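Marked as duplicate of an earlier ticket. Keeping the data here for the record.
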Amino acid sequence: MRTVSLTVAATTLAAAAAFQQPISAPRTSQGSSTQLYEYIPSGFTKDSWKAFKAKEQKKKDDLAKKNLGRMGPKGFQSRSFQSFQEALERGEATHMLPVENAKKRLASGELKPEDIPYMQRGGNWDNSDLKGAKKVRWLSSDKEYANGGFKRSQSVSIFGEGAGLDWTGKREKSGPVQGVKLGKNYKAPTVAQLKGNNAEEKPKKKMFGLF
């Protein structure tokens, strides 16, 4: 009986000790480090792929400098239609027509570069792209246009400026009153008069009225 009692007591103490023993936390495996590799297309080495990407990036940067998304012509530098109309009324500009066989006639000496319209040769309206050529005088409207006024002309309107045609017919009407008859001696206002300038820029005096 005594032996049985000792056995039961030993078993009870062993169970109590096992119950009080702290449970060890499960082992967690440490995450292995991942090494990344650059993708290199077939046919390229690491150096040639790097050079190719640099070349393509340079093309993108050059295109961004050209601002191909802007409105208006991109192959030549033009003045505003308002400035052209003012110069036309002053006798300082004429309508330019394309020149036939321009390259051939230019090579033979029959024509000078300034004889070819700037839009055809891909130059500037004031001949500033040509060395030795007579420069065209800038009007005040040209200076205003070059100093940021061109942004107002970046319009989808067929008239060059403004909101364009009222395709829906919902816009408030503006402009001349309908039904008004013009007299026989009616003279269309000049650009300066439309702008409210009574004093127009006087044409540059010419020698003997000819030159």
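See parent ticket for discussion. The mean pLDDT is 76.
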